[in-house]
């Protein structure tokens, strides 16, 4: 099914008056109120705000995707609003929000909701689409624009629907210090190792960095009261600008394709007890990463 088939012209406002995302959400809810749809709007708004409190849904690229799974609705609602001047508030890339896509869904149709959210986000990632959207004159023009993009909603939730497209990477020539700084700055426990063409060649994680300081850690475990002549971490710090990723990274990692079913990945994560899988194209280029907590956040929590 095409994503455009889920859109209704009467649920699109191409000239939002709102100045903030919160005001935009209220303005979009007015669209279904005007249809005469009988909902507990206070409960709907509470659910949307609760989701915003957990995580800012301003996506970047000028798009925001406030959403909620709530028993206050019994079908999927897709409401889109355009702000000519941009909304106030923080965004990941400092580009003001111009397009607000509000999704409301009951918990019973989580699959359709996730793929609709993914499809709209996919559309928003395409360079130039924001300018094209802001140039539309009527709601029907926006529906046609999305229809022409030929974005489909699949029957099952795939890795591409919830994976992270931005992946922190390093090369084999980067130093231990650069890796540690990147992990600290991005609050990450692992980084993908890629070559000059963005092909995935390995992974380096926080455990690898600690092992670099404690290569004989098994002996230490057996004799914890062992007295060392030198402090291993101090020795490591002396070499942090010289030790390269090529000396530390591992070539054992899990890879999936964007079209892999989430249920398959989830089962594999449980069976093998790992936290992340890297997502690659058919030619092994890195295109994303999926964390175990993403399945919890997106599929289970919503």
Explain how this protein is built.
By secondary structure, the protein is α/β, with parallel strands linked by helices. Strands 1, 2, 3, 4, 5 and 6 form a 6-stranded mixed sheet that branches. The chain has a 3-stranded mixed sheet with strand order 7-8-9. Strands 10-11-12 form a 3-stranded mixed sheet. It folds into 2 domains: 152 residues, 3-Layer(aba) Sandwich (Mannitol-specific EII, Chain A), CATH 3.40.930; 133 residues, CBS-domain (Roll), CATH 3.10.580.
For the biggest sheet, the summary is:
6 strands, mixed
Order of helices and strands: EHHEEEEEHHHHEHEEHHHEHEEH
Question: How widely separated are the two ends?
Answer: 22 Å
Structural class: alpha/beta
Q: According to CATH, what is the topology of the largest domain?
A: Mannitol-specific EII, Chain A
Number of domains: 2
